[in-house]
Amino acid sequence: MDLNLREDAIFDAVSLGEVMLRLDPGEGRIRTARHFNVWEGGGEYNVIRGLRRCFGLKTTVLTAFADNEVGKLMEDLILQGGVDTSFIKWMKTDGIGRECRNGLNFTERGFGIRGAKGCSDRANTAISKVKPEDFDLEKLFGDMGVKWLHTGGIYAALSEQSCETVLEVIKTARKYGTVISYDLNYRPSMWSAIGGKEKAQEVNKEIAKYVDVMIGNEEDFTACLGFEIEGNDENLAKLDIDGYKKMIREVVKTYPNFKAVATTLREVKTATVNDWSALCFADGEIYKAKDYKGLEIMDRVGGGDSFASGLIYGLMITGDAETAVNYGAAHGALAMTTPGDTTMADKSEVEAIMGGKGARVQR
Fold this sequence. Notes:
This protein has 363 residues and is of the alpha/beta class. The chain has helices at residues 45-53, 69-80, 126-129, 137-144, 153-156, 160-175, 188-191, 196-208, 218-225, 241-254, 303-318, 321-335, 347-354; strands at 11-16, 20-24, 37-41, 59-62, 64-66, 89-91, 104-108, 117-121, 146-152, 179-183, 213-216, 260-270, 273-282, 285-288, 292-296. Helix 1 (45-53) crosses helix 11 (303-318) and helix 11 (303-318) packs antiparallel against helix 12.
């Protein structure tokens, strides 16, 4: 497939969205923790961090922080991931976060019959208040150039303002020939305060008109765009692949601007054992990634984001959807074997897994 990537772009990719401080109790639980490890993470940011750290592309981030010590910690974590920070918006705040604050995300990993659990504290954050004019979009997309913009439904759901901001940023990127990917990433708890599922569909259906590569799982396409998947049971213990393929073909009929549509396939056996794969539509065909049956998981959070970064890398570098969906599935699988939202894999490991390499010790 030909994505017509901008050749004179300084940045390979940029994300738009919130970056939170994740507080991780390790093998324990939030409710009984006495210490936490900290990571940076966000549904949109995780993707471009993976593109930088695992796949070696040049990336930057459009986000905002309250100008305080926690914001500076977030910046330091982003710098450790190699992502450019020159387009971060620093926002004035008072001493207790009335004007704006930085988001926190407490997440425990789960184990066996105990599922992963998240507890976000992200209302009134700096990025939820940002307007399009707070970023120098003409400089970024026009003068400097960006090949790929990635954003998603988590950022869109933060506030009424973020609904407006994401649409304006996408339109500006599109004006300058930037390819746009969007992960629907439906979170009912986030949309509930600004209109629920009805608002989610209103916003996402409008955004979808400008998207080149649409990404989501079964719930995302149903809740955000109104498409149903036939054959799945309520708990998604068994997935109907034919139902997914039928749904994808309906999606591209409705949105002919989509050059690719991708969805992850996850059957949850326990919190620590999942069956994992993915589908990608492009050029009239649907391609399925290698199956990772009985995948043992350390930390599932961010697995879908790492799938997205592998998929985007594959599409950018090879233009081949079948190769790209296998990059995505392998990268997502590897990311779920390590703690934190973001990847700890490198490209050679991803390609080795794609090629069928096992888990024998390397020394």
